[in-house]
Amino acid sequence: MQGASHMLLEEPVRLASVLSPAKPKVFPSLTKIVGTLGPKSHSVEVIQECLTAGMSVARFDFSGMDAAYHQETLDNLRKAAQNAKKLCPVMLDTLGPEIQVQNSTGEPIELKAGNHVIITPDISKAPSAEILPIKFGDLAKVVKKGDTLFMGQYLFTGSETTSVWLEVVETSGENVNCLVKNAATLAGPIFTLHVSQVHISLPTLSEYDKHVISTWGSCNSVDIISLSHTRCAEDVRELRAFLQSHALPDTQIYAKIENSEGLDHFDDILKEADGIIISRGDLGIDLPPENVFMFQKKAIHKCNLEGKPVIITRVVDSMIDNLRPTRAEATDVANAVLDGTDGILLGAETFRGLYPVDAVSTVGRICAEAETVYNQPLQFKKVMWHVGDPMPHEESVASAAVGSAIKVKAAAIVVFTFSGRAARLISKYRPTMPVLAVIFPREGSDPSKWRSYGTTQARQCFAVRGVYPLMGSTDEAETGGLTKEEYGIKLAVSYGRSVGIVKPFDRLIIFEKIGDSSVVKIIECEG
Q1: CB 41 within 8 A of CB 35
Q2: End-to-end Cα distance, the chain
Q3: Which keywords does the record carry (predicted)?
Q4: Is 371 in contact with 30 (CB distance < 8 Å)?
């Protein structure tokens, strides 16, 4: 499949138009941006700037920092979201089966190419250039001569001065003797070890992860859990059962694919998970570099056909230290949008980078520009073909809503929904305009209980391409005596005008479910 088929360009193409100043965009890109909060994005002020710049989801990475630090950051996020008048979902990223070296001395360790280093499970040994102790006793059983290991504090930055390639020379008892392939200085309190294409007999959901979820996660009713190193569908089912048993039945699971095992079982994982995160840093170690792009394209394509959100990582690493991305990185972001990604995940760029706000805004501008040439008609046909005939009623109406919105050049599609599912279904057909999802309580539901459930459903929609949720109500004090439809339209139009996507006389598509039927209407905004 040619890459150009994912672009929609007018002929003849006027390359000189690229030099024209980009039109300022009041509304964020349809592609969502996940920002990892940490030392450089910890304060209320910086988080608020990130939200204003276009960050849609806040990620908390529990492979670093403790629960107390993350709680302080989350409290700051809540204040920032209140100031910015925005909802923001919380994504908890698990540690998973990660092998670590605890640098108890705290001193940098210099490794020289051509030297040998012993990796041992004897954690009583002090780490040095000659020996590195790990918290895993079976490494010598699962590796063989010639296998590749990779180690560093920031494991997958691509910077060969802070991470090291190792080649297994031999095993002796529980120890593994390795050849150092490149000179590197390992600095920091913890180094992570990655073993390429080898099964590690550690649970995907570690005891540490269970503790974090059952305490911090449960206390804060997290919206999404990113399950690191997902290797099979059973990993997702195990986490789902654990969430059910810890009063988190509505928390979504995004399976993080970052090793060859996850790739091998991708189709089964996709069926079980609520969304997918393609962790390209780790995949770039497990796969040959020339194969990473192909997996990315195939995985995004499969997620698009199933209507499940897909997010990619490791896009603008250079912005950790620089104000602008490289040309290759900017092109990479655009190509991910053209492939059909729902979101871009910024890790180190916002966690410890010098320019977290600029990273968010820059990626957002690239995404918005790429969206203008995204080949929506092609994607629409692919999804229609995949769904097949006869189409289920809900698919038929959702596709009709998107088709109508494009034909009448609607400014937005307004969806009335209880769970957010209808909005996700609309997004599956990749409309070129925003989807304003008004989350209403289900008839007969307890208002006090629904507020918490509805807010969770609304926040989770922020991870889906093009969907922007609004909290609706059936309380007469809030609706002013208007019908559900009148109130929902008024709410959507008011929001749309406030962010610059709806103007007088614009057309809107209204999509709602009435009983067992779904209805699509076209309305025109008042002048």
Answers
A1: yes
A2: 46
A3: ATP-binding, Glycolysis, Kinase, Magnesium, Metal-binding, Nucleotide-binding, Photosynthesis, Pyruvate, Transferase
A4: yes
Residue 231 — very low, low, confident or very high, per pLDDT cuts 50/70/90?
A: very high
Contact in structure between 35 and 57 (CB atoms under 8 Å): yes
Query: Between these two residues, 42 and 440, which has the higher pLDDT value?
Result: 42
What's the confidence (pLDDT) of residue 455? 87
Q: Residue type at 349? A: E
Distances (CA, A) of 286 to 18, 197, 236, 300, 397: 37, 6, 21, 19, 42
Q: What is the CATH number of domain 29-96+203-372?
A: 3.20.20.60
In this predicted structure, the answer to whether residue 15 has a pLDDT above a threshold of 80 is no
H or E stretch covering 485:
helix 484-498
Q: How confident is the model at residue 102 (pLDDT cuts 50, 70, 90)?
A: confident
Q: Spell out the residues 6+ positions from residue 145 whose beta carbon is closer than 8 angstroms to its own.
A: 168, 169, 170
Give the highest mean pLDDT range of 5-14, 185-194, 274-283.
Answer: 274-283
Q: How many CB atoms lie within 10 A of CB 98?
A: 20
Taking the domains of the chain in order of start, what are their residue ranges?
A: 29-96+203-372, 99-195, 376-525
As a whole number of angstroms, the distance between CA 35 and CA 345 comes to 6
pLDDT greater than 50 at residue 2: no
Interatomic CA distance for residues 240 and 482, integer angstroms: 40
Location of structure tokens 């001569």:
145
Distance CA 481, CA 497 (A): 22
376-525 and 29-96+203-372 share a CATH fold = no
Would the CA dihedral through 468, 474, 479, 483 be positive or negative? positive
CATH for the 376-525 domain, from 3.40.1380.20, 3.40.50.720, 1.10.3660.10, 3.40.50.970: 3.40.1380.20
Average pLDDT over residues 433-453: 78
CATH number of 99-195: 2.40.33.10
**HEC string for 207-260:** HHHHHHHHHHHHHCCCCEEEECCCCCHHHHHHHHHHHHHCCCCCCEEEEEECCH
Residue count (the chain): 527
- d(Cα 99, Cα 410) in Å, to the nearest integer? 51
Residue of 425, 428, 429 whose CA lies nearest to 518: 425
**Does residue 232 have a pLDDT over 60?**
yes
* pLDDT value of position 450: 63
